[in-house]
Each structure stands twice: as structure tokens, then as C-alpha cells.
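User: Can you help me understand a structure? I only have the sequence.
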Amino acid sequence: MEFSDVQRAMERLDGRVKQTEVTIDHKLSEQLGTKVCLKWESRQTTGAFKVRGALNTIMSLPEEQRAAGVVASSSGNHGLGVTYAAKQANIPAIIYVPGYASQKKIATMRELGAEVRVIEGEYSEAEETAIRYAEKKGAVFISPYNNPNVIAGQGTIILEWLEQTPDLDTVLLPVGGGGLGSGIGLALKALRPRSSLVGVQTEGSAFLHANWHGHDIETVEVLPNLAEGLSGKIDLQSITLSLTRRLFDNFLLVNDDEIARAVAYCYNVHGEVVEGAAAVGLAALLGNKEEHLGRSVGVLITGGNITQEQHRNILERAGN
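Assistant: Let's start by predicting it. Here is the structure, written out as C-alpha cells:
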């Protein structure tokens, strides 16, 4: 993959997704002695950044492939993005989700017209089932991370962000399967090769963290955690394994208490309701886990699709 893939995605998505706001966090800026800005992809169409990659992928499909519809596996936000994009293209979508997927996200997918199939067990089981079904039916399977067009679509975030914050030189972002980080990394390193890209994962699903640090990802376990949107095993053939190793400058881990604190911070300081997976980059910053911040630090807040009950429980955990 190349930076030009992200540039083409930017052209395709022009006028089809929101340009999400960036705000300066004056409180954190003063505490850390550097400018800190937050980009709110939680305000994106469908409530998360995933719609960028889904739209770019479906818009890239030739007409004959669209006819059979699309299939995806998702713990929630990717499924929402694919469902929205399929509706725009007037093609059917079937989404396979693990048993722990958010009921709010499942309900929204169904409202948008997708057929949602719940597979009890981990994300990897939903993914494997979706791939088999797509192969059997001749439909297009859209991975949330192991797909060049998805990766390119997610990378459009940084093109937009650099226009809003030209002096951005450190970026912290949540990582699940690595599609977001790979796309952002391709564009950031092409435009700002000296800028630092920092990935953050939850301790409950640390596959790419292990891979970046040179450890065997097959020994990593998925554990219950507050960032279910980032949870799940990674396809051992995924292109994101090599891309994230090449493009990331650091890789950090946060735990559930740190995630809860970050979710509460977004609510208490900025009045924003965000999900656990969206806040792991901020959790790392609040925990002073990244030492080399530079002059201007950007933190990506990736999604806001969380029920009131889930949000309330996280706030209580954080001491609100």
C-alpha cells in the first residue's frame, strides 16, 4: 500500500463524510507543557470513524461485485459503517457480530437495513463464519482491518486533521486490528516523516502491541475489557501486521481503570459521551505513558456508540 491510496480515498469521500471537529484541551496542555488537541470522530456519521473505510471500499467495488451484496464481521462500529455504506449504494449487507457486541450497535445496524447474525463466542469466530459465508455465496467480505480500501479510507482522517492542526507532530490513537493506524501511518509518514505515531491497545486484547514488540501473537489471549470495540484475534496473514511494525514509533497498553478515567474525562471536561475503545489513546496520555510528546499532540477519539447504562457504569468505575 502507498500514500496515493489514501489520496484517492480522500477524493472518493469528498462530501460523503463529516469533517469532524478538533478542539484544544487547555487543561491537559497546561499540565503537560505542550499543545494537546482532540479530534472527535465520535461525532462522525454513524458515530465512529469506521464509515470512512466502509464507504471507500464499497464505492471502489465494480458493479458486478456489488450485485451479490457485502458481508462483514464486526464488534459494532465497522458493521455500522458497512451497513450505512451499503444502504447508500442500495445493496444488501450481512453483518456477523460476536456475542459481546453492543446491543445498541446491533439495533442501529438492523434499523439501517442490515441482516445481523450474532455468533456466540469471540470476534475471531464471527470473522471466520462471515468469511466462509461470503465465499459460499460469492459475496464480498469486508474486513475491518485486512483490506487495503478500508485502510486507505481510515487514513483520510489524518489528511483532514493536518489541515486543521498544521503543527501536529505526535498522534496517539486506539488500535484493534490496525486498519486505522495503518492508514493514518501511511499518510502521516508521507507528509510528516518526523512526526511520531503512537498506538494504544487495551491489556485485554494486545495482539498488535505484542507483534510490534517482537512477541508471538498466538500466545495472546482475549480477556473481558471496557474496549470491546478493539477486542479480537488478528488474522495471522493480515497486512496490518507488517504495516504497523513499519509505521508506528511506539506502542502502549492501558488497563480498564485507565480507560474508565479517560471516558470520564471526556464527559466531565468536554461534555462528550464516548465509548471505552474510543478513549484508549487519551487514557495513555492521562497516564503519562508516552514520554516524547513533541510540541503539538493529537489524540483521536474514535467513537461514541455506547448505551446510557454502559456509560453510567464506566463513570461509576471512574469515581463519578
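Now, to help you interpret it: Residues 51-142 form a domain with the Rossmann fold fold (CATH 3.40.50.1100). Strands lie at 22-24, 35-40, 70-73, 93-98, 115-119, 140-142, 170-174, 196-202, 250-254, 296-301. Let me know which part you'd like to focus on.
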